Amino acid sequence: MDREDYYGGASASLNLTQLFKKFRDSAAPDNLGRDRDYAVDLIPKFILASGTFTRMLVHTDVVRYLEFKQIAGSYVYRDGRINKVPSNESEALRSSLMGLFEKRRARSFFMFLQNWKDNDPATHQGLNLDKNTMKDVYTKFGLEAGTQDFVGHAMALYLDDSYLQRPAREAYERILLYTSSMARYGKSPYIYCSYGLGELPQAFARLSAIYGGTYMLAKPIEKIVTGDDGKFVGVTSEGETVKAKMVIGDPSYFGAGNPDGQDGKMRVVEEKKVVRAICILKHPVPGTDDADSTQIIIPQNQVGRKNDIYIACISSAQNVCPANLYIAIVSTIVETSVPERELLPGLQLLGTIQEKFVSIDPLYTPTADGKQDNIFITKSYDATTHFETVAEDVADVWERITGEKLSLDKSDVEIQG
């Protein structure tokens, strides 16, 4: 059940009319082209080619309803300019991300990661990935702070620097995932759904229908009904109550101002807010070699913040807007009382912006695991421009419901773009 009249809820893809109605409650201007040429994501996310989300799509066989395009390049902001994350060794040698001596140190670092074998101490160089922190590993190879930013935020895709004080195993696995995704298709590690991310829920709806599932749009949720024992009974909509053994819900249905069941429990807590700016451009992002699609990560330390800033840019190559236009979305976690100003480092990289739509959304986390009342709630979508954190949440919900870890076979099957 979805309160909106379009697929995808918070992560829908809107046409031009829907976009202007949602953000400005006005009609779209005539100079932006045809309505049907647009599929503008409210929340931008790319898919790591070898990531968990890809494995989920393959495992469920939902890929048969989807088309994918490769993202042309992944970039990182450093010392006032954006640099392409190298996709192969020759690009790494030419990259301006690092000086000559730092490139040698970085090469030794990456060779160490690639050659590591748990059962071969000769590959460990005196380090223990389960005991030494990632900071210890960086120190061992003498990597500069800027290189640590690039590796930790643009490759390992960490949201902040807290990972530096944790055992290095997790970062090691994340970096290998990034490099294997890069090797899969070249150019960048990311792929993306043609016609926008709204295709994902539509594809799952089609697959669900085969197994007897029903998808209801424009269906307002009036009440979450619980019994005397506090357990879930059903959902009331337009005066009717549909009953089920459990409910799996998006947290916006359980937050402030929404029904919390008969017991009055607040089932989610707002931890942070995320600010996003959807921008329509008439040119590619400057400094990206006219790429038709890009991800740019601005590490927190580069702009004196606690959280990274993310930019996702796509175009007609992904069938999301008319030819010669580009959709760029800048997002970050809110840290001040003036959220839009926090996006400036990203907005300034875009050049002239034709139209801009800004949203500030709460990030909700469930207060309980759902096992007691059979009400299982997901987390809100974060500021990142990739699906790995979403995949982690899906796996967590699965384990809470079934009591078993999510097992994904068929994981080696490739998605064809």
UniProtKB/TrEMBL annotation:
InterPro entries, per database record: FAD/NAD-bd_sf, GDP_dissociation_inhibitor, RabGDI
Domain of life: Eukaryota
One GO CC term, this protein: cytoplasm
Single annotated GO MF: Rab GDP-dissociation inhibitor activity
Matches recorded under Gene3D superfamilies: FAD/NAD(P)-binding domain, Guanine Nucleotide Dissociation Inhibitor, domain 1, Guanine Nucleotide Dissociation Inhibitor, domain 2
GO BP of this protein: protein transport; small GTPase-mediated signal transduction; vesicle-mediated transport
Family the UniProt entry places it in: Belongs to the Rab GDI family.
Name recorded for this polypeptide: Rab GDP dissociation inhibitor
The species this protein was found in: Filobasidium floriforme
